[in-house]
Amino acid sequence: ANKVFYDPFVVYHFHIRGWVTVSQTYDKRDLLIQVLSSIDDGLELEEATDSQLHQILHRSLYCKRYLIVIDDTWSTQTWEKLKLFSPPP
């Protein structure tokens, strides 16, 4: 996955790319912060409410091609929870 993530075609094709490593146990808020930090490390997120984090993620991804790698996840539930906050295709 790492090789594909940094492939020049992939870099060119996707407006936004992010890589997050998830442990077997994780906190949904921390996961959102990790995703947002991976796509824009200049954001100040620690003081944001959960609702604000969801809005920031939605605005960041809306109408853009994005690739977010959720590495080392133990179940599809991680993605199911996270995709609730992403814009519709």
TrEMBL record:
Domain NB-ARC: 2-85
GO molecular function: ADP binding
A Pfam cross-reference name: NB-ARC
SUPFAM superfamilies with a match to the protein in the record: P-loop containing nucleoside triphosphate hydrolases
Name of the molecule in the record: NBS-LRR resistance-like protein RGC9A
Top-level taxonomy: Eukaryota, Viridiplantae, Streptophyta, Embryophyta, Tracheophyta
